[in-house]
Amino acid sequence: MEGHILIVDDEPALLETLEMYLSERGYEVTCARNASEAIDLGLRTNPKVIILDVRLPDGDGLEVLRELKTRGCPSKVIVITAFHDMETTIRAIKLGASEYIPKPIDVEELEEAIRRALRLQPEDAEALRIDPNLCYEEGEIVGKSRPMKEIFKAIGKLSGNRVTVLIEGETGTGKELIARAIHYHSPFKDEPFLAINCSAIVGTLLESELFGHERGAFTGAISTKKGKFELAGRGTIFLDEVSEIPMELQAKLLRFLQEKEFQRVGGERTLRSEARVIAASNRPLRKLVDEGRFREDLYYRLSVATIRVPPLRERTSDIPLLVKHLLQRINNQLGTEIKGIQERALQRMMDYPWPGNVRELENVLTKAALAAHGDVILEEDIVPLLEAEGGEPVAMSLQEVERAHILKVLHYTNWHYGKTCEILGISRPTLRQKMRRYGITPPLSK
Questions:
Q1: If you compute the radius of gyration of the chain from its CA atoms, what whole number of angstroms results?
Q2: CATH of the domain at 409
Q3: Is residue 435 exposed (0-12), middle (13-18) or buried (19+ Cβ within 10 Å)?
Q4: Best exposed site among 165, 194, 271, 357 by fewest CB in 10 Å?
Q5: Per-residue pLDDT tens over the stretch 17-68
Q6: What is the pTM of this model?
Q7: C-alpha–C-alpha distance, residues 45 and 42, integer Å
């Protein structure tokens, strides 16, 4: 049996037609003709899918949907109605319907919706489940791979002293998270942690941001301003993209690291600061030193201790754990209710090179969570997003290549089957056969 389906409608002819059509395709079908029967059978028989009409003789189908969801019915619900309008559609989706199909019903469209709903079943569709009771602290670094374990050990050692730390790694790998972890696990965690992006501020203003300025030091300096080193006390200054500091300012930073002394821009008085410096760069500083683009003496001062953060493609074993963590955070922040992710979708993410690293992973998961038809993220929710990023999954079989190409063309034609067949050079029956074989179903709006 393909799965148990409950059809709820007060039209005998439609019930008979759908029951016959779906039974011939291997589904176990039960029928209900009113709201009370629908609630009773939905709760008692636990069908995989409920096909629910909005207008019923003894009640509103959307109230039936609300009752079923309130009482914990796990069935996926496909709402059908002849009275289709925007407000009804919005209500149905907000109440938990996975699909909304207008009458007269296209049975092929309905069957595609059923197949998609069956793939959304948590118990057999997902490679991992999101535990809503599992709590992650804000800023927690997630990973269990060997490189990440080494980073955790380094954080433990460095949080107990005040040496300068250089964190190197590609954009989006979480360098600031590591810097914050070192600070917040140190005895000075109650002191300020001040971050500054050195690539986002021009030279003169960057000097003022770091060291402060006196009134009248330059045009626009209408009052004295304290810089980050003065404000930090015994806390931490995080210099992100430290490679972008101009050469003339590098000398002043070097003097501070050597003497713990500095002067405000336009000032003559020497000030002291006990702030700790943690720097980060997405480019290897040693290479920039060799190219004459970064001071060698400053490089040695910054890299008393060095942490290299691996790109995500070098720690793919961490992706499932990261996905759990990120999806839980996305659920909390955006009000989505994603409970799991399909195995094929997870595999696509494992095969993708992630040039934007964890930041890109979070972006893709956020878009997929917002676009998902139900509470499980499917492969077709992920593939278009990865292709939009310009990446190509690796190690694909010929069947996977064909499936990915068909999906790409369908998205290109906005799921217009005629245009898709023309581009692929196949007939409509062949296209539908391949879509069934590969489990390809159109999005909700189609």
A1: 29
A2: 1.10.8.60
A3: buried
A4: 271
A5: 999 999 988 899 999 999 999 999 999 998 999 999 999 999 899 999 999 9
A6: 0.69
A7: 6
